Amino acid sequence: MNTLSGLIGAFAESADGQLGILMSALAGIATALAVALAMTVYFRLSYRTWQDVVRHGLTTLAALVLFAFAAYDMRHAALAYLGLNPSKPAVEFEIRMPRETLTTVADSQIELHTDRNQTLALVDGVRDLADGRAVLRGAVALNHRTADRVLVVNLPGKGTFEFRLRLPAEPHRSEQFGPWHLADRIASPVAGSVAAQDAYTIRYRVL
């Protein structure tokens, strides 16, 4: 049943992407035909004075602008259908944890896992807090259009911590960090030694 639902969902997503490309193509063709028709009528009915030359130049410029917009719209729709995000936003994150958990920044490895790829995050540094905790800072690029994003933090000898990023497929940029979220999953390398889940939190914003 789950397999059937997945196939139906994939087919629906593919159909939506193809429909988006088709609509963009039809819009571009309609724009080109409308501009071509308007220019043909205009050139045949107008007199050849210097004012006509200026008007013809402005008409040609408007046509070029419309053609460029139609081409850009079709390119954006095609990239979205392929799962690529042409603007390539990034997520800046802060992970709060007990200071003793984090030995050195060099030992930390953070990756963004999606249903399309895995991307290594850039670790920016650590800030100590007055309550004995530390904040690990970093950033990672969002190279694909998908809502399935999990930030995986691997601390050798301490465990693996997974944080699901609650973002839409095409997130909007934000000036402020969002609220703190608990770790969605913690895997300890030592059997029977599971870290307290509420001791590890994350917040992030889209750049």
Structural description of this entry:
The protein has about 210 residues and is α+β, with helices and mostly antiparallel strands. The chain folds into two domains: about 80 residues; about 120 residues. Strands 4-5-1-10-8 form a five-stranded antiparallel sheet, with no helix packed on it. A hairpin with a 3-residue loop joins strand 2 and strand 3. Helix 1 runs antiparallel to helix 2. It is elongated and about 80 Å long. It starts with a helix and ends with a strand. Keywords: Membrane, Transmembrane, Transmembrane helix. This is Acriflavin resistance protein. It comes from Bradyrhizobium sacchari.
What's this model, at a glance?
With 207 residues, the chain is of the alpha+beta class. The protein is built from two helices and ten strands.
Key attributes of the depicted protein:
single chain, 207 residues, alpha+beta, 2 domains, five-stranded antiparallel sheet, 2 helices, disordered N terminus, transmembrane, Acriflavin resistance protein, membrane
Provide the fold topology:
Elements: H1 2-45, H2 50-82, E1 90-98, E2 109-114, E3 118-120, E4 122-128, E5 133-141, E6 149-155, E7 159-164, E8 181-182, E9 185-187, E10 201-206
Antiparallel strand pairs: 1-5, 1-10, 2-3, 2-6, 4-5, 6-7, 7-9, 8-10
Distance N to C terminus: 39 Å
Gyration radius (Cα, Å) is 26 Å
The total domain count is 2
**What is the number of helical segments per DSSP (H or I, 4+ residues)?**
2
Quote the beta fraction. 25-35%
Largest sheet: 5 strands, antiparallel
Helical fraction: 25-40%
- SS-derived structural category: alpha+beta
Mean pLDDT metric:
74
Parts with pLDDT < 50 across at least 5 consecutive residues: 1-19
Secondary structure tally: strands: 10
